[in-house]
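Workshop exercise sheet. Pairs work together: one partner reads the sequence aloud, the other fills in the structure field after running the prediction. Swap roles for the next sheet.
Pair: D.N. / O.F.
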Amino acid sequence: MSGKKRISFLMPTFNRADYIAEAIASITSQMDANDEIIVIDDGSTDGTRTLLESIGDTIALVRQENSGKSVALNLGMERAKGDYIWICDDDDVMCEGAVATLVDLITTTGVDFVFGRYSKFTHRGNVRIDLGMAHWPVLERGSPARHILEDAFVMHNAALVRRSLYDQVGPFDPSMLRAQDYDMFVRCAIRGKAAFTSQTLFMQRKHAGARGPSEMLHSAGQSNTVWQQYDARIFNRLYAEVPIAFFERMFAGDDPALVKRAALLQRATIMARHGLWMNALTDWQTASAKNSEPLTMLEKDICRRAMAGKHGFAGALDKAALDGLLDLSRSRGLGAYIVQELVEGLVWRLRDHDEGNRALAWSLASRLGQRGKLLHGVINRLWPRSRSREHDQTLREVSDLALLD
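Structure field:
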């Protein structure tokens, strides 16, 4: 395989002899003559290597000592000759027509990366069980970058990325033994423009096999705890390295101070959704001191989303975070109204099917909400609806593809 390619499909693998043949076949059936598929065997010890050797020239096979997915992907990236990169897992199945869909989307939009939806499945014996669609936010409002930073929902199996964007953001971080895919999408969202399709592009196989490099193998049941630890690393780094100006570009408005305040509230919500409550508090405190203009409906929505993270909000009940929220609620300025909206964001949590989550929501709402109940009437009296509507027209989310212009 010499010369420039259209798409380089990269597939890291480790001990997936039972699934990888089906994963490869779902890709090769859609490949153009000018595409390539590079499989990086991360030191497999089962029958994966023998199976891959039997496939022949359909794939380019690269081997390394067991070093983890990030190292494998960096090695594959060094070998890749494509203008576009499509990273594929070794146990999932690409849907028919997925390649044509994303190639057309990235070509017509001219963006840096494109992505779509996926669904989940498992097997019980020889019976395939459909587990339904994976989480998909309402992407029609707000920039793709905002959605990606708020929650992990984009998967490499459903994404086509220009090689030039990967060159800009740099290699995968080898220290990220988990969540390396989300880390990369966060970096891509900060540097590049994105477009999306609601079409389902691949089927994610759910199984109980061990995951991760050999030095930190963990079962599927432990993956959520491990994921949260690495998730915190991603967003602590983002908070330290990405300037608030990036978040300001998510909004448009005539008042620069109001745009700056919305940016602070947005970054705080991102931090809270990833369990970094002290970072969030810093931004809420700064935002509350910016000006005394009432919260717009857009800003209220931003604050309420802080409580909607996939990992919950238990960190808000830690002493330092709770003390900070209570101090904010007692402030004379905008801080009390920010807390009021955080309490409003707990309402749907009070109807959670999990009893433990409901108990946490009641505990936090009762501690923060006593003052909030008194504030409802004050808000309505001091900030009439007519003024709120007029004020809201001065601020909107950027929902087109011009975030980085």
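Discussion prompt: Residues 371-391, 400-405 have pLDDT under 50 and may be disordered. What would you look at next?
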